[in-house]
Design brief:
The structure is a single chain. It is built from twelve helices and no strands. It is mainly α and 246 residues long. The protein has one domain.
């Protein structure tokens, strides 16, 4: 296990947890660049997502920033779809093609938030909507197939729809990532595709647990989110494009 990889996972967990994300896209990007086996990549990324956002869900709920009715409206259809995505067998070439597309789109969404979104004002009269449940189902399916938790897609969609306050959206994304990552892992286990090498994953899990707990307690102002998102978008975009060339 590379010490450098543990340090990078710690930093990613710390930064992502403060925004309600698990960091799955960046974990996958780093493991892909390190030429980790693709089965091990998926399982490890989902497991890291779970241990990071579990603490976030707790803190957001305690602080009153996790409206459970909306959380279930968005997540209910996504949970079985994440299971199906994790259950489906994928060839290595197909997996890396899907992951390359998923990471590239994620990077572009992050760039949109950085450069196009000037201000954010929630719609105070917005209620749960069926379309967000359908969107959540598609994101859940992608989550199960690739190991990306899905928050990196869900957050900009909810913000574009002015679905809730910024802090509540972070809480909703934490919940969404948690339930879909668990469901995706169960899908892999049901197909006997769950690949966990504890010599590899153990140090990484300890790193993201520590980073996630610290990040969940830090404010976005302290972490300068625009700089963080910009650097993360570049990493994800590089890894996504790199996979296409591979």
């Amino acid at each position: 296990m590379s010490v450098e990889l543990c340090i990078l996972f710690f930093i990613i967990a710390l930064l992502y947890a403060s925004a309600g994300f698990g960091g799955g896209s960046s974990y996958l990007a780093l493991m892909a660049l390190a030429n980790v086996d693709f089965h091990l990549m998926k399982s490890t990324a989902l497991l890291c997502n779970i241990v990071v956002v579990a603490g976030g869900v707790y803190h957001f709920y305690r602080a009153g920033h996790l409206p459970m009715k909306k959380a279930w409206q968005i997540s209910l259809a996504s949970i079985p779809m994440a299971f199906i995505g994790g259950y489906l067998p994928l060839k290595q070439k197909t997996f890396f093609l899907l992951l390359g597309i998923a990471l590239t789109v994620a990077a572009l969404l992050m760039c949109y938030r950085l450069f196009m979104e000037k201000s954010y004002v929630p719609d105070e009269h917005k209620k749960g909507n069926l379309k967000y449940g359908i969107i959540g189902a598609f994101i859940g399916f992608l989550s199960g197939m690739t190991g990306i938790g899905g928050g990196i897609y869900l957050s900009p969609i909810l913000r574009l729809g002015r679905f809730d306050t910024a802090k509540n959206i972070a809480g909703l994304c934490s919940f969404f990532i948690l339930v879909n990552s668990i469901s995706g892992l169960l899908g892999q286990a049901a197909k006997n595709q769950l690949a966990l090498d504890w010599h590899f994953a153990g140090p990484l899990l300890l790193s993201v647990i520590a980073g996630g707990q610290i990040g969940a307690r830090l404010s976005a102002a302290v972490l300068k989110p625009r700089i963080v998102e910009g650097a993360t978008a570049l990493l994800i975009l590089y890894a996504g494009v790199h996979m296409f060339f591979q």
